[in-house]
Amino acid sequence: MFGRWRKKGGGNPAKQQGDPHELDREGDPRGGVQSDEYRHAEPSEVVTDEGVAMSGPAGAVQDGSTPDERRAQQRD
User: Fold this and answer.
1) What's the pLDDT score for residue 54?
2) Is this prediction's pTM over 0.70?
3) Residue 32 CA neighbour count, 13 Å, CB half
4) Three-state SS for 28?
5) Helices (H) and strands (E) in the chain, counts
6) Which H/E stretch holds residue 68?
7) How far is 3 from 24, CA to CA, in rounded Å?
8) pLDDT by residue (tens digit) across 37-52?
9) Residue 16 neighbours by CB under 8 Å, 6+ apart
10) Radius of gyration of the chain from Cα atoms?
11) pLDDT for 76
12) How many CB atoms lie within 10 A of CB 41?
């Protein structure tokens, strides 16, 4: 039963162990290993890689404010 999930000559991308490039797809920069430009982009930036435009990775914008300061701004 477990043998059918194994790929011959490759790792199991679902476990994300071993080769980090196992999920790479040509022409699709969203899977596998992302570029340094994408990984260091702010969430509000647009990054173009391999002809695909996408927003930066999700997360809080690094603006130097503390969480308490951001909460106070959102309440105003």
Assistant:
1) 84
2) no
3) 12
4) strand
5) 2, 2
6) helix 67-75
7) 23
8) 888 888 888 888 888 8
9) 22, 23
10) 18
11) 78
12) 17
pLDDT band at 72 (very low <50, low <70, confident <90, very high): very high
Token pair in block for residue 42: 């702010």
- Burial state string for 15-38 with b = 16 or more CB within 10 A and e = fewer than 16: eeeeeeebeeeeeebeeeebeeeb
Confirm if 3 and 12 have CB atoms less than 8 A apart: no
**Mean pLDDT rounded to a whole number for the chain:** 75
Beta-strand relationship, 52-55 and 46-49: antiparallel
Question: Which residues have CB under 8 Å from 31's CB, separation 6+?
Answer: 23, 24, 25
